[in-house]
Amino acid sequence: MRPLGIEGAWLVESRVFGDDRGEFQELFRGGPLSDTLGYVPGVAQVNRSVSRKGVVRGVHFADVPPGQAKYVTCLRGAVLDVVVDIRAGSPAYGAWETVRLDDPRRSVYLEAGLGHAFMALTDDATVVYLTSEGYAPEREHAVHPLDPALGIAWPPGIEPVLSAKDSRAPGLEESARRGLLPDYHTCADFHRELRRRFTA
What we know:
Blueprint: E1 2-3, E2 9-13, E3 16-19, E4 22-25, H1 30-37, E5 45-51, E6 56-62, E7 70-76, E8 79-84, E9 96-101, E10 106-110, E11 115-120, E12 125-131, E13 140-142, H2 164-167, H3 172-177, H4 184-199
Antiparallel strand pairs: 1-2, 2-10, 3-4, 5-12, 6-11, 6-13, 7-10, 7-12, 8-9, 8-11
């Protein structure tokens, strides 16, 4: 695992074992991830999405606690995965980082409290993501992925395709005014408590 530039996000690289029969890969291993995080991340739900080129999903996040950590892998095609620091009070508030996921040996893990989005760079881009909490619409929110104030550098030459829900999402500043964003210190306390339980 390699930490990304945004606190609470990592790039995870795994090995593929192949022979004349085909290949085998461990898509997810909880032990090494827990060793890095200092707590057991937990998996409550596994989702799969298939998107045509240009589809943008996100920027999505959930209330903390408990939030919704994600472990994201692209199994087919390619996506530009985006992690956004939407935690009010964070030293890196408003920062974002992109990772091209086009190989199932590469995954992104992001802790609860961070925003997540991706754009499909190919047709039939197939993404599987494990989440630490199940879907709970009353706790889940979105920031508009094309918000100029956020300024995510989506690939040129690809027309973004948004869901009706995401196209109606407020920008980052409006989300902050409405009090929708996770608080950085609350997120830190939440993860600190997870680590305390792990080592107790």
